[in-house]
TrEMBL record:
Keyword Chloroplast carried by entry: yes
Keyword Chloroplast in annotation: yes
Record keywords, A-Z: Chloroplast, Plastid
Taxonomy, superkingdom: Eukaryota
Name of the gene this protein is made from: orf125
Protein name (record): Uncharacterized protein
Length: 125
């Protein structure tokens, strides 16, 4: 899907970042259909910094990050455009990830289990 606009909480935010290799920020992405998605873009180094701060050996569960090497306008645009491909599947996934009811996953699991049973029956017939 075509990206119409990429924006930040403040227009000058990118210039204010103290370390473009260790930071994360909310990014607003407006697509051609007029809907604006919000995603968090973080650097790999920032993920490690967050684990150090939280004293964990893994990234805590929560809303997912789009991970980049550096927070520059060009890299953010490149990442956002990639996530907007295929009808914005991954952009939508990252935007709505924290809002999906687990019943959706349970239904998908039940459907997949049924599919596997059917395959097993075909193999054994």
């Amino acid at each position: 899907m075509l990206v119409k606009k990429i924006s930040f909480v403040r227009p000058t935010l990118l210039e204010e970042i103290p370390d473009i290799e260790d930071y994360n920020l909310d990014v607003f992405v407006e697509l051609e259909d007029g809907y604006t998605y919000t995603v968090v873009i973080a650097t790999a180094k920032n993920i490690v910094s967050l684990m150090d701060k939280e004293k964990t050996n893994f990234s805590e569960p929560g809303n997912p990050f789009i991970i980049v090497r550096k927070l520059t306008k060009e890299i953010i645009e490149e990442a956002v455009k990639a996530y907007a491909e295929n009808d914005a599947y991954w952009l939508k996934f990252y935007h709505f990830a924290g809002e999906v009811d687990t019943a959706v996953f349970n239904r998908l699991q039940a459907e997949h289990t049924e599919y596997l049973k059917e395959l097993d029956e075909l193999d054994n017939s």
